[in-house]
């Protein structure tokens, strides 16, 4: 299987930004660990990050040519990007499921973070588990892909 590990805005600053909320792990650490876990589980993980909505939409569309699933931390776009939601819905309809990840527990934070407009078109959402959330999400999306193939 091939999985796109995708990160949205400001997540390139992980490890520098607001460590009390997001920890000291860098984006590169997360990408390396997730890629290594993927290899253990027989999956190829390709990694991408962008701060811009349009680029993220293009990356979601790019999964149509050979990816089996997406693990996506949309950052704040999760709270209001209907365009990203539509992109995820489109590829889900083409058989590319997505698991949404938030490092922090968005429900324990400001009210505007309690809503995710992207989560309803995802297979599921993982929030508040820190870096470990990526392992949960990767295992879950691979489980779904294997079920669909069976
Ligand atoms: C985040 C939560 C979002 O609310 C926030 O805008 C982020 C990070 C998380 O991983 O906890 O940028 O997606």
UniProtKB/TrEMBL annotation:
Annotated residues for binding of substrate: 73, 79, 86, 103-104, 113
Reactions this protein catalyses: 3-dehydroquinate = 3-dehydroshikimate + H2O
Site annotation Transition state stabilizer: residues: 17
Superkingdom of origin organism: Bacteria
UniProt record similarity statement: Belongs to the type-II 3-dehydroquinase family.
Biological or metabolic pathway of the protein: Metabolic intermediate biosynthesis; chorismate biosynthesis; chorismate from D-erythrose 4-phosphate and phosphoenolpyruvate: step 3/7
Catalytic residues as annotated in Swiss-Prot or TrEMBL: 22, 102
Record keywords: Amino-acid biosynthesis, Aromatic amino acid biosynthesis, Lyase
Record's function text: Catalyzes a trans-dehydration via an enolate intermediate.
Quaternary structure note: Homododecamer.
Enzyme Commission number(s) of this protein: 4.2.1.10
Gene Ontology terms for molecular function: 3-dehydroquinate dehydratase activity
BP GO annotations: amino acid biosynthetic process; aromatic amino acid family biosynthetic process; chorismate biosynthetic process; quinate catabolic process
Broadest EC class assigned to this enzyme: lyase
Protein name (Swiss-Prot/TrEMBL): 3-dehydroquinate dehydratase
Residues represented out of the complete protein: 22 to 171 of 180
